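Our preliminary data section would be incomplete without showing what the modeling component actually yields. Below, a chain of 146 amino acids is followed by its predicted structure, encoded as tokens that our downstream tools consume directly.
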Amino acid sequence: MAMRSRADAPAVPGVPSAAAEFPTELWGDRVFTGEVKTKTVFPAVVLQMLHAHPDSGYGLMQRIGTLGGIFPVNPNTIYPLLRRLEERGFIRGELEASTKRGTTLYRITEAGEERLESIKANFKPYLTNLIVALQRLRRDLYGETS
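Predicted structure:
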């Protein structure tokens, strides 16, 4: 049985071609999306940031935004995550009385510190493999060695 590539597939009216599907924007904002982001990477990033210092949801969004655009974040992703982390006892939100709108300031708890250490221990091999895979892809695509 002969294998067909997408390029060999006939054009279907109303369906974009493979070339049209290829993203023209930078891929940086698409690296950590979907389940990988929401189930593993994103909680680790938030816990690490709160370990460094307490912050509001908006402040966390701004800090995450400085990470080169690889973690697209908005209120629909940050606030549900903060609620889940708080429900599990990993963070604690306290209403800041000093602001007009009553901003919630989040702090990592002792259980959150323990969870962060567990994530870090389990996550390092994943990050190492990801770095190796991305370096290999970069080398294969661009002939770069570093």
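The chain is about 55% helix and 5% strand. Helices lie at 18-21, 34-52, 57-65, 75-87, 110-142. Preliminary results of this kind motivate Aim 1 of the renewal.
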